[in-house]
């Protein structure tokens, strides 16, 4: 089977020749692997480690010059962590911080879908080869938190839900139009799309089920329907202890769940497989908080074997770290993950 055929089989509830693998990491980890393995490109890495990495496509920005802010008016500064081994971009200005009413949201200069050109999508697809193609994304509350400020955004859920709803509506309209144009430009060749919202903390949901149902879920349903109408499967991402919301997401139509932080309460692997394994596929689950950064290579191998034993009995499984591999993760552990995937991942 090709990489694309493996993914398609898993997302359709069929058995592949082996469980596909995926790779999520920070840029620093990717560059380190290329250097240490003496490889010249990401494609060489996917080939050497037999990673079924999706091929991403998207529109090309052709809008106004952005200057020192991004599309949403956010300004970032680069921060370092892990004693300088890694960097990330921190939002330092929140352009909706002073908004108080729905009218303030309406007046904000929201970006236009017309600022993106999709005429090059077919040329992008010509480079995909036998890889699964992933296109489109949607994660509105995370973006709202960045535009509003994290603390204020969560206070708004209780104090000003109409402001949240108005802003989420603007974000939805933009992403719906972008995704629709992308899907049409890549008609028949896009396999998966990414719909997300981090709904879980390390111990519980970040907001009530009632809030999720009222503010987020209706538009999540519409975004999933847009993809499904074009026979595109939906990979849904939520970190943390998100067990209580999974039935709602499954009812909304998600096809696969990522990243499976199984050390969080309620996210135990056996329980997820038992209760939801015949309805959705699972993506990730190789622990990125303890096992990968602080365990031994044998710990990693054992966990991959355990995951395959558990999720191999479900609708399907994509073997991957449960979030971006961080610079503190030893190379030996990363290699152990993908070596174990090949050793134990054959489907019988």
Q: Taking Cα atoms only, what radius of gyration do you get, to the nearest Å?
A: 20 Å
Q: Determine the number of helices (DSSP H or I, runs of at least 4 residues).
A: 14
Query: On the 0-100 scale, what is the average pLDDT?
Result: 97
Proportion in helices = 40-55%
Sheet of most strands: 7 strands, parallel
Question: Order of strands across the widest beta sheet?
Answer: 1-6-7-8-9-10-11
Give the uncertain stretches in residue-range form.
Answer: none
What's the CATH first level? Alpha Beta
Tell me the number of strands.
11
Order of helices and strands: HHHEEEEHEHEHHHEHEHEHEHHEH
Shape: globular
CATH topology: TIM Barrel
Q: What class would the helix/strand composition place it in?
A: alpha/beta
Straight-line distance between termini? 14 Å
The overall number of domains is 1
Percentage of residues in strands:
5-15%
What is the correct CATH architecture? Alpha-Beta Barrel
Question: Which descriptors apply to this entry?
Answer:
348 residues; TIM Barrel; seven-stranded parallel sheet; 11 strands; 43% helix
């Amino acid at each position: 089977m090709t990489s694309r055929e493996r993914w398609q089989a898993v997302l359709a509830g069929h058995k592949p020749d082996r469980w596909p693998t995926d790779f999520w990491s920070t840029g620093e980890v990717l560059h380190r692997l290329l250097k240490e393995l003496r490889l010249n490109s990401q494609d060489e890495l996917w080939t050497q480690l037999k990673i079924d990495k999706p091929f991403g496509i998207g529109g090309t920005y052709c809008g106004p010059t952005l200057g020192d802010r991004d599309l949403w008016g956010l300004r970032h500064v680069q921060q370092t962590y892990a004693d300088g081994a890694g960097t990330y971009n921190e939002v330092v200005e929140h352009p909706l911080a002073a908004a108080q009413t729905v009218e303030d949201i309406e007046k904000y200069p929201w970006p236009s879908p017309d600022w993106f050109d999709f005429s090059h999508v077919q040329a992008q697809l010509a480079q995909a080869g036998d890889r699964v193609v992933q296109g489109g994304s949607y994660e509105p509350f995370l973006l709202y938190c960045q535009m509003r400020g994290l603390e204020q955004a969560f206070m708004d859920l209780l104090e000003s839900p109409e402001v949240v709803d108005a802003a989420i509506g603007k974000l939805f309209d933009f992403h719906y139009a972008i995704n629709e144009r992308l899907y049409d430009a890549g008609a028949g060749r896009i396999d998966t799309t990414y719909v997300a919202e981090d709904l879980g903390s390390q111990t519980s949901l970040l907001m009530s089920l009632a809030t999720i149902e009222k503010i987020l879920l209706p538009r999540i349903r519409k975004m999933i329907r847009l993809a499904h109408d074009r026979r595109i499967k939906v990979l849904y991402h939520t970190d943390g202890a998100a067990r209580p919301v999974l039935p709602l997401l499954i009812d909304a139509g998600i096809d696969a769940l990522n990243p499976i932080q199984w050390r969080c309460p309620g996210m135990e692997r056996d329980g997820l497989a038992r209760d939801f394994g015949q309805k959705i596929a699972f993506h990730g689950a190789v622990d990125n908080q303890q096992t990968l950064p602080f365990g031994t290579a044998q710990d990693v191998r054992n966990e991959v074997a355990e995951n395959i034993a558990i999720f191999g009995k479900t609708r399907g499984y994509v073997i991957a770290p449960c979030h971006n591999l961080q610079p503190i993760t030893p190379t030996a552990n990363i290699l152990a993950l993908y070596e174990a995937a090949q050793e134990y991942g054959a489907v019988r």
